[in-house]
């Protein structure tokens, strides 16, 4: 559980390749997330093609770290799998958080690079990855060995904790 408190947004990476089995462990952690009505509306696209990674940086201004990694995972929600409209965002967000924590636990780094709900980013990534109409990209997770070290930060703020009512 220490990985929860040690997880940090990593934006610099070494060139050391990440073994495929670690990538699969990260995705497995994503698929273990809770979802509304157990709908599991997610799809995960693992990108290892450097040309695709570079092309993403041309359409997403905050994705430049993709030039440094050998893998990224695009977390997508499939509207065709919804049982409860709109909950795909929460479900895929829970999956994303699980993957960020698993990456940290495995000694890897990652950062949540948001796509949805910005329509220009959604459209560009859908076109680039040839996503079906019903599939919406939520975010991108670069995966790599950290090229920077960030210590834990205690973000507990008692002024944001309320008991029983505001």
UniProtKB/TrEMBL annotation:
GO terms for molecular function: oxidoreductase activity. Residues 5-58, 89-145 form the Nitroreductase domain. Gene3D superfamilies: NADH Oxidase (3.40.109.10). SUPFAM superfamilies: FMN-dependent nitroreductase-like (SSF55469). The keyword Flavoprotein applies. InterPro entries: Nitroreductase, Nitroreductase-like, Nitroreductase/BluB. It holds the Pfam family Nitroreductase. Keywords: Flavoprotein, FMN, Oxidoreductase. The keyword rRNA-binding does not apply. This is Nitroreductase family protein.
């Amino acid at each position: 559980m220490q990985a929860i408190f040690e997880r940090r947004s990593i934006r610099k990476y070494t060139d050391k390749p990440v073994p495929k089995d670690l990538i699969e462990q990260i995705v497995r952690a994503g698929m273990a997330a809770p979802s509304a009505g157990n709908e599991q509306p997610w799809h995960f696209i693992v990108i290892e093609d450097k040309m695709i990674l570079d092309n993403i940086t041309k359409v997403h201004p905050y994705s430049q770290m993709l030039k440094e990694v050998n893998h990224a995972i695009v977390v997508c929600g499939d509207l065709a799998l919804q049982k409860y409209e709109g909950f795909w965002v929460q479900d895929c967000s829970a999956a994303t958080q699980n993957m960020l924590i698993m990456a940290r636990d495995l000694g890897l780094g990652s950062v949540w690079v948001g796509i949805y709900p910005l329509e220009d980013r959604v459209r560009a990534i859908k076109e680039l990855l040839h996503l079906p109409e019903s599939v919406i990209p939520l975010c991108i997770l670069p995966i790599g060995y950290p090229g920077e070290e960030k210590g834990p930060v205690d973000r507990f703020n008692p002024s944001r904790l309320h008991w029983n009512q505001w």
